[in-house]
Each structure stands twice: as structure tokens, then as C-alpha cells.
């Protein structure tokens, strides 16, 4: 891609990313934010409408009684397909630049391994792309497990190891040349919180998801820092735990084993639960409702302390402006607020204690990973080179 072509699309890229972050933003507000003159803005918006990248809608009257318009997705604009591989089953969704999302297919895993059901998910992505000819410009796999590049490394709730996710885009005839991006649910949830959730506006944000184990991401300017192969953020496998305990990841003493449903079962003297997430929700729910026996309250307090101490260690490590927590963590904090707060404070280095970063519950909940996946997809689609390629496509 020649430099001149990229430059021609670079302001367009900024405007489209702003519209994706704030769908329906008034044209006047978007121009101010990008320091565009009204003449340059009119020309740019017209070019993006013509290229099927943007639509304008009347939005009543702006300042000084002038009519104003809001900016949103073009009805025939580019789409991101999300293959959501959740703990309980898979879904395929299509999302547009304006944040509208529609589920187009769903299924269960049964007793199958990834190599057996991934072709089914790939066929659903392919069918979705054929249904919207030429529009799907990125495929994002949102995975409830550890990933590296386009490989699934571990899906701990199901005991899956090593599978190639490349089949989700590479082999589909309907989306030739469309990139496949892969993120785990904790990283993608963090993107959603940093861009449009509880950590919005934070320069550096730490996001943690307690599900089966703990995953997360450090986000700088809304972008996750995930290492060379996207496998970073496995916070649960830091040795904050008991060195006597072996973790399914292969390491010992992992933090994972102190804070999730498996930990609660151990503290209560139960065997390891088949579904640690549901088990954790049940125990925490009973403690919050006040119906649980004292032993259960102590178990939840022990997990909340381990969570608070670990979060403090990560604050010492990353120095974030804000921390967001999701999954079981909001419930753990609500069930044992003093235990969490005391351990968080005690674990902070002294200079952090005067003004510790706030810990907030995630606002996106279970739809966070899909929101974050769309963010990742539109980062790709709205890059200057990708926009130049889109504009050169023969649109029918
Ligand atoms: Zn581990």
C-alpha cells in the first residue's frame, strides 16, 4: 500500500474509530474532537458516505438553533463476524461500526473436541459472510481459554488442549483474505471496559476476570498489551498461591487456585466441582443472601482476601489508573467487602496507599467479550490500508 494511499485514509480512520467508540456522535462534536474545519468535515463525511462507510442522520437542533446530524454505520458498510467460543457453547454474531450486533448462529459442543466442532463454527461464519456479500471484513474469535496467535492452548473447563482456530476464517470461500483475530474473553472484556465501560478514559487500565481461574489484560490507550503472540495476561498463573498446590497449567502455586470456585470448594472441604463457575456463583450467592453457614462465609472471605492481595500486587506491577473486575469478582467483593478492601490496602506499596486506583465492577458483564471483539475487528477494518482496500472493492 503506497504511503500516499494510507495518508489519504488516515483522517477517515480517526473519524470512523471515533464513531465506533461513540455511535451516534453529533457531526459537530466529532469535528471539534478531530480539529477539522466544517468544510473539511463536510468533504470527508461525503467521501465516507460514498464509500459506504458512514451514514448521517438528522439529530434535531444543535447550538444556536442550527440543524445538526449524527454519525453512524452505513447500512451496507463493513461488518465484523465474531465467533464466540464460550464455556457453555458457541455463537456467531455480526456487528457493524455503530455497535449493532445480531446473533446469526449458535450451537453446543456436546462431548466433542475442538477439531470436531470447529468446522461447524467455520461453516456458520461462512454462511453469515455469504448472507452479507462482501461486507464481512474481519473475523474475531472470542475464546474462554488461553490463546497464542491463532491457536487455542487451553480451555480449562473442558480439558481441551491445543487446537488451531485458523479454520474459522482461512478456509472460508466467502471471506478470502479477511483476517482472523483471536482474543481470550478476559482480554476482550478488558477492551470493552477500557473503551466504553467502567475504565473509560483511563490511560492505563487493568482488567481482571475471575471465571475458572483469573485472566486479564493491561490496556494502554484502550489497547491490550498481550505480548508477542497474544498469550499475555495469564494473571492467574502468577505464583501468588500455595506452592504445595499443582495447577492444571503445569505450574505450582498459581493464584488461580485461591480465588475461584475450585478454591471455594477446597475451603469448604468439598471435592473439585465439575462446573467451578456455577459452584462459585451458588456459594457466593448464598453468602450474599445471608442464608449461608459461618463456614461458607469464611470460605468466601478467604477467597476475597486472596483476590484483594493479588490485585494489590498487580497494581504495584502495572501502576494502572483504574482496575475493573468481572465474572465472580464483583460478587466476591460484595459478599466480603471488608476482607477484600483490607487485603487490597495491605498489599499496596506505601506510596500507592494515599491514592490507590479505584477498583470498579465491570459494566458489560457477559457481553463484554463480544463488545471487545467488535472493537478489535473495527481496529482492523478502520486502519488506513484496510479502508483503502475497502474503497477499491467493486461494490454491488
Ligand atoms: Zn497455573
TrEMBL record:
InterPro entries: ATPase_NBD (IPR043129), ROK (IPR000600), ROK_cs (IPR049874). Residues 58-77 are annotated as: Disordered. GO terms for molecular function: kinase activity. SUPFAM superfamilies: Actin-like ATPase domain. Keywords: Kinase, Transferase. It comes from the Bacteria. PROSITE patterns: ROK (PS01125). The keyword Transferase applies. PANTHER family: BIFUNCTIONAL UDP-N-ACETYLGLUCOSAMINE 2-EPIMERASE_N-ACETYLMANNOSAMINE KINASE (PTHR18964:SF149), ROK (REPRESSOR, ORF, KINASE) FAMILY (PTHR18964). Belongs to the ROK (NagC/XylR) family. This is Sugar kinase of the NBD/HSP70 family, may contain an N-terminal HTH domain. It comes from Nocardiopsis flavescens.
Amino acid at each position: 500500500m503506497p504511503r500516499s494511499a494510507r495518508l489519504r485514509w488516515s483522517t477517515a480512520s480517526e473519524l470512523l474509530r471515533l464513531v465506533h467508540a461513540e455511535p451516534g456522535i453529533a457531526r459537530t462534536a466529532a469535528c471539534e474532537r478531530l480539529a477539522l474545519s466544517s468544510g473539511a468535515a463536510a468533504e470527508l463525511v461525503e467521501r465516507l458516505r460514498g464509500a459506504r462507510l458512514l451514514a448521517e442522520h438528522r439529530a434535531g437542533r444543535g447550538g444556536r438553533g442550527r440543524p445538526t446530524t449524527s454519525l453512524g454505520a452505513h447500512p451496507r458498510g463493513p461488518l465484523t463476524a465474531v465467533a464466540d467460543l464460550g464455556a457453555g457453547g458457541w455463537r456467531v454474531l455480526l456487528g457493524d461500526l455503530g455497535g449493532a450486533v445480531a446473533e446469526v448462529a449458535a450451537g453446543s459442543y456436546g462431548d466433542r473436541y475442538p477439531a470436531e466442532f470447529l468446522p461447524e463454527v467455520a461453516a456458520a461464519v461462512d454462511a453469515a459472510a455469504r448472507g452479507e456479500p462482501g461486507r464481512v471484513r474481519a473475523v474475531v474469535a472470542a475464546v474462554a481459554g488461553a490463546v497464542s496467535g491463532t491457536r487455542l492452548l487451553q480451555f480449562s473447563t473442558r480439558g481441551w488442549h491445543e487446537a488451531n482456530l485458523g479454520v474459522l476464517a482461512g478456509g472460508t470461500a466467502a471471506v478470502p483474505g479477511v483476517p482472523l483475530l483471536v482474543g481470550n474473553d478476559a482480554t476482550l472484556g478488558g477492551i470493552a471496559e477500557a473503551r466504553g465501560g467502567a475504565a473509560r478514559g483511563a490511560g492505563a487500565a487493568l482488567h481482571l476476570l475471575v471465571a475458572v481461574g483469573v485472566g486479564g489484560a493491561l490496556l494502554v490507550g484502550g489497547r491490550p498489551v498481550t505480548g508477542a503472540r497474544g498469550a499475555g495476561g495469564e494473571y492467574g498463573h502468577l505464583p501468588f498461591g500455595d506452592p504445595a498446590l499443582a495447577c492444571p497449567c503445569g505450574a505450582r502455586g498459581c493464584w488461580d487456585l485461591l480465588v475461584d470456585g475450585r478454591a471455594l470448594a477446597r475451603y469448604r472441604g468439598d471435592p473439585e466441582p465439575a462446573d467451578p463457575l456455577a459452584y462459585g456463583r451458588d456459594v457466593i450467592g448464598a453468602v450474599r443472601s445471608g442464608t449461608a453457614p459461618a463456614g461458607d462465609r469464611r470460605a468466601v472471605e478467604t477467597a476475597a482476601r486472596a483476590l484483594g492481595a493479588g490485585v494489590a500486587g498487580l497494581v504495584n506491577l502495572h501502576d494502572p489508573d483504574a482496575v475493573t473486575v468481572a465474572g465472580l469478582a464483583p460478587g466476591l467483593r460484595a459478599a466480603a467487602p471488608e476482607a477484600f478492601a483490607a487485603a487490597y490496602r495491605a498489599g499496596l506499596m506505601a506510596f500507592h496507599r494515599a491514592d490507590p486506583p479505584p477498583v470498579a465492577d465491570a459494566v458489560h458483564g457477559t457481553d463484554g467479550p463480544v463488545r471487545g471483539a467488535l472493537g478489535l475487528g473495527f481496529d482492523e477494518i478502520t486502519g488506513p490500508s484496510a479502508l483503502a482496500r475497502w474503497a477499491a472493492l467493486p461494490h454491488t
